[in-house]
Amino acid sequence: MYDIKALYEAKSVAHASELLLQHPEAKIIAGGSDVLIQMREGKLAGATLVSIYGLDELRGITMEEDGTIRIGSLTSFSHITKNPIIQQHVNVLGEAVDMVGGPQIRNIGTIGGNTCNGVTSADSGSTLVAYDAIVELTGAEGKRLVPIREFYIKAGKVDLRPGEIETAILIKKESYEGYKGHYIKYAMRNAMDIATCGCSANVKLSEDKKTILDARLAYGVAGPVPMRAPSAEAAAKGKPVSEETVNAFAKAALADINPRTSWRATKEFRLHLAEELARRALKEAIRQSGGDM
Amino acid sequence: MGETVGKSVKRVDAFDKVTGRARYTDDICDKNALVARILHSTVANGTVKHIDVSEAEKIEGVVKIVTCFDVPQHKFPTAGHPWSTDVHHQDVADRLLLTSRVRFYGDDVAAVVAENEVAAAQAVRAIKVEYEEYPIVLDAVEAMKDGAPQLHKEYPNNILNHTSIYKGDYREAIKEEGLIKVEGWYDTPTVQHCHIENHICFAEMEAGRIVVTSSTQIPHIVRRVVGQALGIPWGKVRVIKPYIGGGFGNKQDALYEPLCAYLCTQVGGRRVKLDVSREETFVSNRVRHAIRTHIISWVRPDGTFAARKMECFSNQGAYASHGHGVAAKGMGAFPQLYPCDHVECDAYSVFTNKPVAGAMRGYGIPQAMFAGEAHIEDVAKALNMDSLAFRRKNMMPVGYVDGFSKNENYFDSLNQCIDKGMAYIDYERKLEEYAKDTGPVRRGVGMAIFWYNTAVWPISLESSSCRMVLNQDGSIQLQMGETEIGQGADTAFAQMAAETLGIRVEDVHVVSSQDTDVTPFGLGAYASRQTYVGGFAIKQTALIMKERILKYAYEMARMAPYEMDIVDGKIIRRNDGRVLLTLAELAEEAFYSLTHSEHITAESTYQIKTNAYSFGCSFAEVEVDIPLCKVKLLNIVNVHDCGRLINPALAEAQVHGGMSMAIGYGLSEQLLFDEKTGKPLNNNLLDYKLSTMMDHPDLGVGFVENYEPTSAYGTKALGEPPACPGAPAIRNAILNATGVGIDRAPITPHVLFEAFKEAGLI
C-alpha cells in the first residue's frame, strides 16, 4: 500500500502539461521504478502524482527523414535493447540499458525516467552524453530541444520546466554515423546493481582503420552527473590507432573527472577504475570499428 | 528394508509451492486486521527522555500508540534454545517489548497500531522522540577496553562471556627448537540471512488466550517466550506456524511475536499484524556475528604442529540473543579439526552498539572455517608445502573421539571428500598450470575443509515427538514438532515414516503446519538437527504404530503379529510373502467394526543422547582481473559426508543454497555502518550485495555416503554444513592466483584494490 495523496492520469501530452501546471507540487510517474521506491522509503510519502504511463505515443523508436534516431521517452529498456534501429546504429546504447537492474525493471523502467531523475549512475546516461543526444521537452508552450549535457544541471536536478515532460531523446545522424561504441558498467555484482563507475567510449576510424578521426568518452559516477572527458577525447583525436594513444587517452581522462569518496567507494578507487575502464572501452570500440588492437 | 529412503521422491509441498497455493502467514491473515509498525531508535546508544505522540494520535486511522514507558517490565530471553530447568544454563533475559535504554540504531522504542499501513507509517513518522545520547562502540575488541562505552551494567568491559579450551602446555611447547611461527588475524563480516519472506506475525485473542501465527522456525519455543515476555502462563499462548519463506536461523529467535501479542491485548484482543520490512529485517532482527580471530601456529619443518593458539572476539551486538554459543561452537572446532597436543583457545562474546547477532546457518563455523582454513593455507605456504598434503597430514584422524560430545570419527570422510572434490575440479593439473600465470588476469584454485556436528546434545536438550494417525483408506497423518522451513524436512519425514511403516510415501500426509495446541512438542528447525533427531521419533513411533496395526491384523487374518509384516501398504505373511489383506481393508474394518472399533494411532517422544560429526570440503576456481580488482568465480564444488542421503535431489538442493550463501559471504555480502553514529548504511537488497544467479557458476555437489551408525536412518547434518567451507576455498583460490592472501571477508574489489596496491600488483 503506497501513501499517494492523489493520482492524475494524463490522456495526452497536452493534458499532462495541463495537469502539471494545475498541480505544481506533483511528481511525474512513468514506469514507477524510482518514484514508488522513494514513496515507500517515505521520501515521497503523501505525494501527488501525474502519470504519463498511458501515453503510448511516447513509446517506440523511429528514424526521422534526416536520419535522426528518435527514442520515445516511455520506451522501456528492454524495447530499446531489442530494437533493430538501435542495434544497427547505436548498439552500445542497447547494451548499456540491458545492464539496468534485472529483467522486470528493464521491462517497466523507461529511458525518460532514467534521464529525468538526474542520477549520475544511470546506465543510459553516459552513452547518451557520449553520443551528444538531444532531449526533447514538451510543455504548454510547445517543444524545446536541449543537448543532454546541458539538460543535467546537478545531482538529481535536470532542466525540466513547470508543465514540461520529456517526450523523446534524439540522436542525430552525424553523432552516430561511422561510430562504434562500448559501455562498461563496473558494479559489485553482475545483476541488480548500480554502477560504481560507468564508462562509455566510441570512435570513428579512418578508412584504413589506422587513425582515430574522432573519439568520445563519457562517464557515470565520475562526478555529480554523467559527464564527458574532453581532455581524453583531445588526446586521441587524429592520433594513430596504438597502445600509446589508448594509454594517453585513458590517462588524460583523469583531468576531466571528479569522483567523490563515499561509503560505496573511495575517490582513489574510482579514479583507478576510470582510467582502466577508459582504456578497455576505447580498445573495444576500436576493435568493433575494424581497428587492430 | 523399505523402498523409500534414498530416493529422490518429489517434495510433498512442491506443487502447492510452485502454483502459489501454499499459504504463508500473510495469506492467512484476513485483510481487516489492524496493522502494527515499530518506531526504531535513531541513535545507537542512549536513553529516551521524552516521547511526544500528540501529532501521531491525530492521524486518521491510528488506533493505539504504545511507547517504551507503557510496556510491562518483564525481561525475557529471545534465543531459540530449549528451556533449561537449570537456572545457570538459561538464556540471558535482557530484552523488553520496547525499551527506553536504546543500545543500537534500530532498537525498538514505540509501536503504532492503525487501521492500515499508510496510517501506521504516517504515525511512526509523526512521533517525536527526545534522546540523551551516549558514546558508541561498534568493534568487539575496542568494546573490551577499559573506558569503552558500557552497554549492560551486569557485564563489565562488555564481555557477555569468555570461555577457554586449554590442552597440554602451550607455553612450554613453543620453546621447542626449530619451530616456525605463523600468525594471522582474520576478520569476518556482519551479514544477514536474507530469507525471502521477512519476519511476519499476527496475534488475536480467543477465549481468554492469545493466538499468535508467525513465520518462525520454532513455534513451541516462541510459545514459551511470549508467555515469559507478557508474564502470563505459557498455556495461555497458542502459536501457529504455517509455511514459511526461509529462516536460516534468524527465525530461530523470538523476534516480534511477544510485541505483537502484547499489542493485540492493548486493542481489545483484535487481530494485529506486524509485517517487518526488509530494511528492518536487516537491522532489527538478527545478524551473523562478525568475528575477529587471532591464530598462532608453531610448526615443525616436517609439517607437524608443535603448538597452536587461537583467540576469537565475537561481535554480539546490543543484546545477548543466542549469547556465547556461537563463538563457543566456532572455538570448539579448532582443536578438533587439526588435533594438536598443546593448544590454547579463548573465545569472547562482546556487546557492541550493533544489531543483535543470533543464529545464522553454520552457527560460528563459517567464521571459524574462514579463519582456520585461511590460516592453514598460510601455514602450508610458510612451510613451502602443498596445502592439501599438509591438511591430510594433520587433520582429524579416523578413530578420533571428542571427550565432551563423545563424537567419534568413524570413517575417513575428510580424505574421501577431498579426493572427490579434487577430481571434480581437476585440482592438481590446474594448480600446476595456473601457477605459471603472470599476466593481468590470473586463475587459481583453492580449497577448504570443514568441521561440523549434528544437533545440540550434550550442550542442550535433544528431544523429538511424533504422532501418527491412521485414516480409513490406510493412509496416515504424520505430525512432528520439527518444522518445514523450506529445506524439505516434511518430505524427508514422510520418506522415513513410509520406510519404517511399510507404506507408500504418497500415503503419508504430513501436517506441515505446527500448532502448539495440537502438535506434539518439538524444538524446531535449527542446528542441522531435524532429519537426525526427528528420525528417532519417527522410527520409534512407526514401530509402535506397526505393532498396533499388526495386532489388529491378527483379528482379521488369524496370524500371529510377529509372523506378519507391512510391505507396500499390504499386510503380508512373512513365511511365504502372501498378501493377507491390505492396510486399507484393515483400516476400514478398524474404524467401523461393530465388534472391535478402534482408531489406530501412535505417539511417542524420543530423547536423543548422541551427536554425529558431519564433514566435507569445498574446491573453488577463480579468475582474478588484477587491474579491475575483480574476482570471477569460474567453478565451485562442495562434497559432503552427511551419512546416508534420505533424498538425494533435496540434499543437492540443500547444498546449492548453502554454497550460494558461502559465495556471497566470501565475495560480496557485508552490512555496513556509519562509524560515527552506528547508523546502518546498506540495509536494503540493492546496497547489500547478496550474490545473484549471475554471480554464480554452476554449483557442483558431491556426496560420500558413510552410513552414520548412531542414527535411526544412517543420516546426519546437512542443513548448515554447505554454508561453511565455500568462503575460505575462494579466499585460498585468490591467494593461489595472485600470491595475495586476504585475511578478511568479504573479498570485495575495494579490499583487493588496497591489497593489490600494497603488493605492487597495480
Features:
heterodimer; A: alpha+beta; Uridine Diphospho-n-acetylenolpyruvylglucosamine Reductase, domain 2; Uridine Diphospho-n-acetylenolpyruvylglucosamine Reductase, domain 3; Enolase-like, domain 1; 3 domains; 25% strand; globular; B: alpha+beta; Aldehyde Oxidoreductase, domain 3; Aldehyde Oxidoreductase, domain 4; 8-stranded mixed sheet
Notes on the structure:
The complex is a heterodimer of chains A (293) and B (762). By secondary structure, chain A is of the alpha+beta class. Chain A folds into 3 domains: 4-51, Uridine Diphospho-n-acetylenolpyruvylglucosamine Reductase, domain 2 (2-Layer Sandwich); 56-174, Uridine Diphospho-n-acetylenolpyruvylglucosamine Reductase, domain 3 (2-Layer Sandwich); 180-288, CO dehydrogenase flavoprotein, C-terminal domain (Enolase-like, domain 1, 2-Layer Sandwich). Chain A has 13 helices and 14 strands. A 5-stranded antiparallel β-sheet of chain A has the order 4-5-10-6-7. In chain A, strands 11-12-13-14 form a 4-stranded antiparallel β-sheet. In chain A, strands 1-3-2 form a 3-stranded parallel β-sheet, with helices on one face. The model of chain A has no long low-confidence stretch (mean pLDDT 97). Chain B has 762 residues and is α+β, with helices and mostly antiparallel strands. Chain B is built from 20 helices and 27 strands. Chain B has an 8-stranded mixed β-sheet, with helices on both faces. Chain B has a 5-stranded mixed β-sheet with strand order 7-15-14-13-8. Chain B has a 4-stranded mixed β-sheet with strand order 16-25-26-27, with helices on both faces. Chain B is globular and about 90 Å long. At the A-B interface, helix 13 of A face helix 4 and helix 20 of B.
